[in-house]
Every structure is written in C-alpha cells, then in structure tokens.
Amino acid sequence: MGTFEEYEVSRRRFDVADAAPLLLDAAGVVTSWSADAQRLLAYPAAEAVGTSLADLLTAEDAGRVPHLVEQWRTNGGWAGLLSVRRGDGRPVRVMVRIASAEESRGPSRWLMLMSEMAEAPGWDMRRTVLEQMVARSPIGIAVVDTDLRYVWSNTALAQFGGGPPERRLGLRLVDIQPGLDSDAIEAQMRHALTTGEPVIGYEHVGSVRSAPHRETAHVMSFTRLDDERGHPMGVYYTVVDITAHHRARQRLALLDRAGEYIGRGLDLVRTAQELADVAVPALADLVVVDLLESVLRGAEPAPGPLDGTEPVRLRRAGRTSAEAGADGEEGAARATAVGIGDPAAYPPDSPQIRCLATGLSRREERREPLPREWGADSPGDPGGTSDPGLHSVMVVPVRARGVTLGVTTFFRRHRQEPFEEEDLSLAEDLVSRAAVCVDNARRYTRERDAALALQRNLLPHRLPDQDAVEVAACYRPANELTGLGGDWYDVIPLSGARVALVVGEVPGHGIEAAAAMGRLRTAVRTLAALDLPPDEVLAHLDDLVARTAQEESGTPGAGTQEVGSGCLYVVHDPVDGRCSMAAAGHPAPAVVRPDGTVMFVELPQGPPLGAGGRPFESVEVTLPEGSTLALYTDGLLARGEEWALETDRERLRRALERSASSLDQRCRAVVNDLVPARPLDDVALLMARTRRLGADQVASWELPADPAVVADARKAASRRLTDWGLDELAFTTELVVSELVTNAIRHASGPILLRLIKDRTLICEAFDGGATAPHLRHPRTMDEGGRGLLLVSQFTQRWGTRFLPEGKVIWAEQSLTDPPA
C-alpha cells in the first residue's frame, strides 16, 4: 500500500481532518489504498489497487476523469465534488482534493483525499483560502482572548480607525475606540464568552476614530471560540457600518413622531412649541420658532419685502433646549432668552430675516462658534441663543400655501458634527408639516375670534336689574377642535314684575351657529314683549324657524341653521311664586329647594324648533321663595352615549347640592365640576334664585263694572301711595287708574280687578274678562274722547296688554326714581 509520509504532509498543508487518502499514478490508476478509503467506499485493498479512478465513480462522473487528469497535471492539483460508487453499489457524494505527492526521485504520484459530504457542512477548504476569506472580507472581523484583548483582526476593521491589525494586538477596545461605549460592547463579549450563546445583531451608536465628529451606527455579532477540549479560547466578532440605514430609520421615526405629535390642536403657540419639542434632541440641541405678530393674531401676513434698516420684530412662539433643566452655562443663556410670547427683534441683514424675505432655507456647517449675524454670540441678541457653544445652524422658513408665516432656527451645541444637507432636508420636512398646522391654526384663530366676538356681543353683556329672581350665568365655549357653538341664555323683564328665563342651543359650531343664535335670541325677546304664555312663545318661534327655512331652502346654509334648535322658556311671577314653562327639544330645568334638596321638573318635551310634530305644552309649578332654578344646555352633561339620563341627572344633582358662598360661585362650581376646561360642546348654565314680593308691596281691589266706582278706585290707590310714601306719584297714578278702570268698564264684562305693585317701578294693572286689545288713538282737536291711553302713554314709563285664559290685563309702569313733573 506504500508509505503515507506524503499524506501527513499534505494533510497538514490542506488542514483537512478525517479525510480518506489514496494514491494515484499519472494515468489515474489506484496504486495505494488506505483503511479509511476502505471504510468510506467498502472496497478491500486487493480489489481497489490497480483499478482506474473512472471505475470507482458513477457513470455521470466517470467520463470526466480524462479531463480531471489533465487539469491536475497542468495545475498541480484539483479540488471539487465527485460521486463515488461504493462496493455495495450505493452512490456517495464526496469532497475530493488531489495534490502532487511526487518525490525527488521516482515515478509521478498523486495524493487523493476524500471526505463524505454527509459528514461535513460543506466543501473543506485550505487554510490559505479561509485566511483570504476573513482577511479580504469588507466586514470588520476580530478575535479577542478571554481577557478581551485583541489577538487577531482583519484589514477591514481598520476602516473604523485605530490603525492596522498589528497595532491592535494586546489592546482592549477602550484603548482603540475611546468614543464608543466600550463597557456595553464588552458586556456582550463576556455574555458570549460565559454562556456560549452567540450575540447576533447588537446595534451600537457612537463616535469612532475614523469619524470623531460624527455619530456612527454599527451592528455587531459575537461568537465564542473553543479549543479541541471545548474550553473557551476567546470571542470572534464582526462589525458592519449601518450609519446610513440608522439615519434613514431615525429620519422616518422623527417624521412619524412629527405627524403624530405636531398639530394635535388648533392653538398657534402650542403648534409652534410642538415643532420645537419634536426636533430636540433628535435633530438639534436648540430650536426656536418665531412667527410674524400678525400671524399670531390670526391675520394674514403683511405683504411686501423686508428691506428696511430697522430691526424686524417677530414673536417667539416656541423654544426647546436639550438642556432646559440644566444649570451653569445653559442656565445663564436661559436667563437672557426671549420667552414664549415675547418679541424677538432681528437685524434686517440677519439670516433669519433674509430667510423670511426670500422663503429659502439657510445652513451653516462651521464647527467654531457662530458669528453675531446668526444671533448666537452675546446676551441680549435676538432669539435668546446667546451661548458660545452653539456652532452649527439651520434657518428654515415656516411657509404654507405660498405664504411665509415665520422662521424656525435649529442649533447644535453638544454634537460636534455640523448640520449636513440631509439634516436640512429633514428640517424642511418637519417645518413644512408644522407650517400647514400653523396656518390652519391661524385661520381657525381668526374665525374663532370673530365668532367669539360675535357671540359675546349677542349674549347679554350684563343681566338686567329686576327683583323677581337673583340670577347668575356661566358660559363655556367648545374647545378648538370643534369651534364655537350656538348656546345662549337670556333674562327678560316682563310686565307685572315678572321675569322670563331663557336658555337655548343652536346645532353646529362656528360663525353660522353664533349668527343663528343671535337671530333666535332676537326673536324670543320680540315674542316675550307680547307677554305670551311659554307654550305660545315656542309655537310662534317654531313657526318662524320653519317658515324661514322653507323660504330660504334654495340658498345652501341660509335659514337652516336654526332648524333643530332647542329652547327652554320659563316665566316666574314674584307675586305668587308661580313658574310656567315650556320646552322645545331641550332638557327640563332642575330646582334646588330652600333646604338644599334637588328636584327635576316633569316637563313634557316638545319637538326641536322647525322640526314639526306635537304642539308645545306648558307646565306651571309654585316654588317657595329661595328656590333656585337651574336652566342648562345639554353640553353640561355631555359625557358620551354610555351615560344614561338618570346617571346624568345624578351627577347634576350632586353638583347642585354642594353649597357655595354666593349664587355666582355655585354656578361656576357646577360648570367646573361637570365640564372639562375644553369641552367638546358649548355649555350654558343659568341659575335663578326666586324671590317673593312682600304683602305690603301688592294692593288689589275687585271692582264692579260700574262707572261710579272709578272715583273710589282713585281714592283707594291714592291712600295706598300715601302708605308707601309715594305721594309725589298720586296725581299721575290717579290719572292712570281712572283711564284703565274706565277702559275696562267700557269694553269688558264681569268684575274688574285693580292691582298696584310696588317694585323697582310702580305698576298699575287692570284685569277684565274681555278679549279685545286696546289701541292707542290719535283723536282730532274737536273729538270728545279717545285720549285716555294717549295720556297713559305720555305720563308713564311704559304700558301694554297681556292676555290670560280668562281675559286680559292692561298695565302701566311709572319710574320710582325719576317721577314725571
């Protein structure tokens, strides 16, 4: 079988373990057979020696033998895969390596090494090949010992800095890359070394020596190396630079966060601050957002170039620093910084103003401190960025829909790398997104301010003076997401010392709803002047809304905003404590009794205004003096559909039962308890504590329908005025009593009731059973009659008629403060 010294040499050279060797002559005939070859191919030596290599291969590879012989002769060897036919006929796929075994003397011989594929992970390679693979790999590769000191590294690792492989020998990572978090990386090495578990895809961000002023990202993998006995020898690891991928991922994450975070509301300053918050510290160390003053007011930016010689005043809308809570140098800078809402005056030649004028972004890459023109080198400079550590800056215009609204300035202080072109592109994307939100907020601010001014002008500026009830009101507009609504309230003095309490709600939001509310409020006041019962007031109001909507149905949005409105109309009489009320698609009022308990009036619900349906019904209740009526819109209890009516009422009941030092404080406390600071719907609450006129303030006489009683009525009224200390009103009152009683006797049937009420005014009322309304006449000079009501209108403050189910009342009022001469 021959000697195998050549085999041992070749085996060491090829570094192939467990290979089955055999020898071939120059023609490819087997000249020596080993025990390993016999084990692998199941041929005895006697049968194999002298056999051609082609006879040992399968038919598909046997034909390749002449070509293979030519190749190994020419190249001095060959390596590859062949299919061998075993002695039992079963084919076996083997890895083959053929090398020259020629001695200095003797015939040419070739050493053939075979290794079964089923027992190996792949094609065994020579050590030189493996060394080429790791040495020439573009991936950084290194091996450290159990003390984590370098024992080998490839050339590619030098791309990260630290010198060639030979300079790394015996050093630790911290000695080579001080800009990295060596403790964290070595912790991964120790994990692999201790557990034997590989660490795959560990990402690390830091500054390497090859790029000390930039933040770079790497992905690393760690694998333990063991010796022949399975003892740890060290750790093999790879490094791949993924900075571009890392920055792209950061950019996308920042844009995603910006889309989620910026523009969550419709407040200008809040939106600007959100832009600054998003950009720090992901993109910059300090960001300031300055907007034109007109923009913050909701107005259009002033047109024209900014080419003056005086400083240009902007207004600080947002500012965020990476060290907002730090002390020292940054704290000193903050002390001189322009606060949110404060003016920031920039020189006309500053980059910010040039950016504002041209609408183009600017970037400064320098690493040394910025010059004065960037507003960053001395206290008191515009922008409040007086920090000598600021070294790189970008200025991006806040521009939306072709209009420049302000500028955003980005600074870097702690990160040494300057802003690059891709940073400017990212900043422009962020500012562009925020600019649309800022412009939306500006437009909303303008409309909201206009609607709020309109509504405030339409709501009562002050509640009228009267003695029937003590009143307090609280109105809270909807938040910026829904806009201003159409909730309203009113207090209307009526004849006979009575008062009307009204609360209503127009569907929708914005200026249209506020305008519709104004129309309804005007209509209610007009109808209230007719002294109609609550159900008739709502019936007339319903007809007006329906008719207006029908007449203007051809104009989109015109006259239709009021359709579906709700209204609650309550009339309180302080003489007898009676309250009559009716509702159109509106919650019934709550009543707080004098003892503090709360009840809800069982009030039939009429349809919303303009919707049509069943007629409105009035309910009359008598309330003790000191009872408090609570009239509210449905926004007071709006907490979602899951809240049942009974639960809503219980919440309101608990809020109303809480005591307060005054009615105004109680009204505000109820709203604060039940309504968030920025509600989704408008809220109006009107609270009225009832009063009663004392028995000494009302005098009444029942008179027969006889002209002879007119004189007696005058005398009785005069005596009552003397008791009240109002003798100065006796002449006028006698005239009024005479005319009203005479008119009642002339036009009515049945008994007549005369009543005097001393309130803020002196009220004279004549009740009769007639249904005809008196009219003011203008008699000619020679006419003998027709001057009664004309005299009443001239000598009294006001007069009128109200109808009751049993007749009518003619009344007249005289002022107690300025009696007629």
Could you describe the 3D structure shown?
With 821 residues, this protein is α+β, with helices and mostly antiparallel strands. The protein contains 23 helices and 32 strands. The strands form six sheets. A six-stranded antiparallel beta sheet has the order 13-12-11-16-15-14, sandwiched between helices. Helix 11 packs parallel to helix 16. The radius of gyration is 49 Å and the shape is elongated. The protein starts with a helix and ends in a 6-residue tail after the last strand. The relative contact order is 0.05. Residues 1-15, 325-336, 376-386 and 780-786 have low confidence and may be disordered.
Condensed summary:
The chain contains 23 helices and 32 strands.
Strand order of the largest sheet: 13-12-11-16-15-14
Relative strand content: 25-35%
Largest sheet: 6 strands, antiparallel
Separation, N- and C-terminal Cα atoms: 154 Å
Radius of gyration: 49 Å
Average pLDDT value?
82
Count of individual beta strands: 32
Q: Stretches where pLDDT falls below 50 for ≥5 residues? A: 1-15, 325-336, 376-386, 780-786
Number of helices: 23
Q: What class do helices, strands and sheet pairing give?
A: alpha+beta
The backbone outline, from C-alpha atoms, is elongated
Measured as a percent range, the helix fraction is 25-40%
Provide keyphrases for this structure.
six-stranded mixed beta sheet, 32 strands, elongated, alpha+beta, single chain
